[in-house]
Amino acid sequence: MTTTQQPPYPPTGPPHGHGQGSGDHQGSGSGHDHGTGGDDGHGSGGDGGHGPGGDGGHGSGAGGGHGHSHSHGPAAPVSRHLRKVIAAILIPFTVAVVVGMVVLWPGGAPSHKRTGVGFDRQTQQATVTKVVSVSCASVNASGGGSTGDTSTAEGSSAAQEAAGTCKKATVTVSTGKDKGRTFTEIVQPDQSRQLHQGEKVVVAYEPSAPKDLQYSVTDVNRKFPMALLAGIFALAVVVVGRLRGVMALVALAISFMILNFFILPAILHGSNPLIVAVVGSSAIMLIALYMCHGLSARTSVAVLGTLMSLVLIGVLGSVFIGWAALTGNTDDNTGLIHGLYPSIDMSGLLLAGVIIGSLGVLDDVTVTQTSAVWELHEANPSMGWRGLYRAGIRIGRDHIASVVNTLVLAYAGAALPLLLLFSIAQSSVGAVANSELVAEEIVRTLVGSIGLVASVPVTTALAALVVSADRPGPEAVPSGAAGTAGTAGAGSATAATSAPSAKPGAARGGKGRRRKH
Q: When comparing pLDDT for 479 and 386, which is higher?
């Protein structure tokens, strides 16, 4: 068999083959070449070959086979039909989210008269300018000393205070209308927070109290270490994630804005916490996913999987919070909220917290599963949706084990002081789980975990159906999609697409993309 020498660079014209020789060519749109030629780029004519028996017949030809490169860059766009189907679902949903935010927009948190309790009090910044050691007996206001009964915790503490050395701190207010005003603060020896000279502190102001008692130290000013830690976090995200990291930080900032300017004020204005949480978390989901991962069918499938899992979490949370008679009013903070705003549905607030708390982990799971299915399809385009689902779900099982354990430990870590109290009281496991404080965390953890577990098969199935349904048939290959081959080593690209065992075609130069292996 004679062959023709190919030029060192592919011609600029459309792919074609020429030659006269022995060979079989079935010229279908998908470009299956059958003949004596091998993978070295020489054989029967490609699509559009000229000579006896052109496309659709048996002809002769020693023309060069022509190939094109496969890249692992951005996901290939899906067909117009599938884009229409995805848009028909997501566009009305997006419009509904925007309309919901407009209707529920609160316009700022409602004002109220401060109670001076907990976080609901006026605060200013101050500096500890002087600290001296004094006898506790000389500064304690009780003047009665110890009660003599040291068997109780109160009596033992009083005895230690009377015999110990206290600290007398002079504090100067540095902000507000009383800037420059000083007051003294007595620090007992058994207090967990000891004041030091030069320390920045936060002081509470109570205008109705006597002048000498209007200010008191409530906390330390930790803005600098917190800001430094946030800066280190942002730097690490940008260094590792580069542009994706920058977009993730922007999406995080927008999420906090939605939380602070929409979700919290809307709940304080009396809107249904569940509806507000669903609308707000949906807006966060759309912005975060599309901003971080791009506007593509892959991201849209992740959005659909996240949305379906959030619906399941909302339904399960609503059922079990009502069934378990959880009020959501279990500590001082929730009690203060209920006292200031009696119209707030505290059980609905609990459910809203479950939904928002699960959203971040859901994003991680759905995006990972969607990307895994897409990459499996890119590696083996002939794999059907069942094969894609089975391969993707194997990846998802590993993800489930780690994510559920992370969620449970996160909630357990937050409730560790409470669990320690139950351990000190030597309460049984049943009694601990039955208490409303712990039952809230159990429902929160299990409902969120069920949603996470369900998101894996749901998102994997959606992604597998989309990519397998979008697999182009023979008539779908565009005439200009295939590039021409170079010298030896350039095989038929369309044959490589239809038959995974074929060797890859040569990549076209100048595109900066890798060939598919």
A: 386
Mapped onto helix, strand or coil, the DSSP state of residue 90 is helix
DSSP letter (8 states) at residue 212: G
Token pair listed for 343: 């119209």
Angle, CA of 495, 501 and 503, to the nearest 5° = 65
Residue type, 75: A
Show the tokens assigned to 431: 């009694």
Q: How does residue 99 score in pLDDT terms, banded at 50, 70 and 90? A: very high
Question: For residue 137, how many C-alpha atoms fall within 13 Å in the half-sphere facing its CB?
Answer: 8
Contact (Cβ atoms closer than 8 angstroms) between residue 217 and residue 202: yes
**What pLDDT, on the 0 to 100 scale, is given for residue 158?**
53
> Residue 254 in 3-state DSSP?
helix
Q: Report the distance separating Cα 274 and Cα 177, nearest Å.
A: 41
Q: Is 482:492 a contact under the CB 8 Å cutoff?
A: no
Judge whether 448 and 310 are in contact, CB under 8 Å.
no
Q: Token digits for 162?
A: 């009377």
By C-alpha distance, which of 364, 362, 386, 363 is closest to 376?
Answer: 386
Chain centre to alpha carbon of residue 210:
50
Percentage of the chain lying above the pLDDT 90 cut: 18
CA distance 383 to 422: 54
pLDDT in tens, 216-234: 898 898 999 999 999 999 9
Torsion of CA 12, 16, 21, 27, to 10 degrees: 160
8 Å CB contact between 71 and 511: yes
Bigger pLDDT: 209 or 499? 209
Strands 200-205 vs 215-220: parallel, antiparallel or unpaired: antiparallel
How far, in Å, are 20, 144, 281, 482, 484 from residue 353 at the CA level? 74, 48, 10, 52, 58
Pairwise CA distance, residues 189 & 485, whole Å: 84
| Complete DSSP assignment for 202-220 | EEEE-TTS-GGGSEEEEEE
Instruction: Report which of residues 243 and 6 the model is more confident about.
Output: 243
Q: What is the pLDDT of residue 106?
A: 85
What does the pLDDT read at residue 37? Answer: 40
The amino acid present at 83, given as its one-letter code, is R
Top pLDDT among 163 and 16 is at 163
**Among all chains, which residue has been given the structure tokens 């015999």?**
163
Q: HSE of 386 in the Cβ direction (CA atoms, 13 Å)?
A: 0
Which of 174, 167, 223 is CA-nearest to residue 203? 174
Burial of 406 (0-12, 13-18, 19+ CB in 10 A): middle
Residue 490 has pLDDT above 70, yes or no: no
- C-beta separation of 60 from 52 below 8 A: yes
**In sequence order, what are the residues at sequence separation of 6 or more whose Cβ sits closer than 8 angstroms to the Cβ of residue 280?**
101, 258, 259, 262, 263, 266, 356
- What average pLDDT does the structure give for the chain? 73
pTM, two decimals, is: 0.64
Tell me the residue type at 406: T
